[in-house]
Hints:
The structure holds 2 protein chains of 2 kinds.
Chain A: H1 2-32, H2 35-68, H3 82-89, H4 91-123, H5 127-138, H6 145-156, H7 168-175, H8 191-217, H9 221-229, H10 234-245, H11 247-262, H12 266-271, H13 281-290, H14 295-326
Chain B: H1 39-62, H2 67-72, H3 77-80, H4 91-99, H5 102-133, H6 139-151, H7 158-168, H8 174-197, H9 202-210, H10 215-226, H11 228-244, H12 247-252, H13 261-270, H14 276-296, H15 298-306
Helix pairs in contact in B: 4-14, 5-8, 5-11, 5-13, 6-8, 8-11, 9-10, 11-15, 13-14
Amino acid sequence: MTIKILNALIAVVGGVLGAIALYYLLNKLAELLPGRWEDRVKPYLYLLPALAAIGLYLVYPTFQTIVYSFANAQSTEFVGVDNYVNLLSSPSFQSTLFNTFLWILLAPAGTIVIGLLIATLADRLRPRGEKLSKTLIFLPLAIGGVSAGAIWRFVYAANPPNQEQVGLLNGIVTGFGGEPVNWLQLSDFRFNSLLLMVMLLWMQAGFAMVLLSAAIKGVPTETLEAARLDGAGEASVFFRIVIPQIRTTIITVFITVLIGVLKTFDIVYVMTNGNFNTNVIAVDFYNQLFTNNNAGYAAAIVVMLLIIMIPVLVFQVRQFRAEEAAR
Amino acid sequence: MSGTQAVTPTPVQVPKQPVSGVTRTKRRAGPEVGGKPRLWVRIVMAIICLMWVIPTLGLAITSFRPKDEANSSGWWTVFTAPANFTKLTFENYAEVFTRGNMGEAFVNSLAITIPATIIPILIAAFAAYAFTFMQFPGRDLLLILIVGLLVVPSQVALVPLLKIYGTLGLNGTFLAIWLVHIGFGMPLAVYITRNYMATLPKEVIESAKIDGASHFQTFWRLILPMSTPVLASFAIFQFLWVWNDLLNALVFIGPGPNQPLPIALNSLLGQQGQGWQLLTAGGMFTMILPIIVFLSLQRYFVRGMTAGSV
């Protein structure tokens, strides 16, 4: 154990000192170049380590994944579009895609609604209550998916009817004289997927709340007062004035949560491992890669994930350019 | 964040305002001005807060309950039968260290997280400096590539990396996962640092130039110190993300002597049925450090989030 700690410390010190030395050398190298070449080359040398990391760990593997998606399970032979055809025609993958779309449709929107509700209400509390409630709701963001899984097991757990219940929901149900329900196996109307989304909401609502609350506080008080003087009720002030003014923030939060939702792995993996009709694309990817040892299917699945992401990517880049133009 | 890296800050137009409501300068003019907040508002907020706290509270209480009780009755019975209070114990925590390998996993988590958090900072700062203060062909294109990569899920990189690591014999080592997290965290690090640097007063850099300072000197003496807030908030993001990461840990390290906490906790989750009380202690143990980091540095965290583009 001491060796591991030493190892980590050496990595930190060595990594940081190494990086400093590297930049010093790169800078010296640029200075050796004659006159104008120094200025021409220097930016690229400063960028080199970051771009190398991005190129080696994201850009190159992405293209390689696209290639693998057309190859067989061991990536030894090309099989054309077989992986895609097989996946898309299999009922279990169709169900996985359906669940993924359900997540896309419901989880980001749900997070926004809850985040807005909390932000609006907390804004009306006195400062101490506001700070306390916001911290409590924000906290799950620091808790990882696996710990959240441990926490929520105690909410959804089900024991046989003749035993006492350990899970909170079933504790309530049996307390009212009902029969315990095996919540995570309730796949009618994908109810169990909804229960998993509740966990994501629990983790992400604080994030939405913080950004939305900051935006709401930025709406000029004069505008609100003018509307109230004109006889607008609180509801119409909220929907007609506050919401339009914080539109950009709502979109940002939506996209951020959406990106998170598409990558959602640990909640589903830990709670059901995709069983009982709760599978999503990220978990299926992992199981194809490790349980089925099929790199072809796994690659094809993430390529599909990438395709789903393209509209978001285009939007993100456009937004960025618009903002740069305004800078 | 969260296991989902959903805390990626994207451009937000948010005015610089107190966010957690700590130092609100002026109360919003509204029906409640000068008086108490309306009763229903307080009741609804109280209910929401309870809904957010109760799941965690259940885990916390169960982690102190003796084995038999934890497996045979709900944690809330601690309140209905006050005699149960006296039975609370630290046994689970002791047991989870010996049987659940949690102590070793904690050290592994530290060994993985600290280098993966600190090393990218300087690399990102240099790149952000070049993007902000230097002119060169291809700059806008590279920047757009980085913005685009913020959206690309890191899963797309896993299959090829796993194969490359396999041939290099890197799988299962700390080095493997350090490099993965440095690579995956880099777009976000460069992006938010660059956005922050773009808001620094240009005059400072100009005057440094006039005084004959080179880019290297300007970076070290001026820009790096001025960028500490954004570098700190990136460090918190990265810390929480790496500490809580399950997917990359499973892919590149897997269960075994080098496993970090999420994997160790996940195997406890797999043995449900007999081991509820161990699971809870393990869960608490996994959460404690990120919660401390989060609570003590919340201000930076929020600033980094709202200041995706400052």
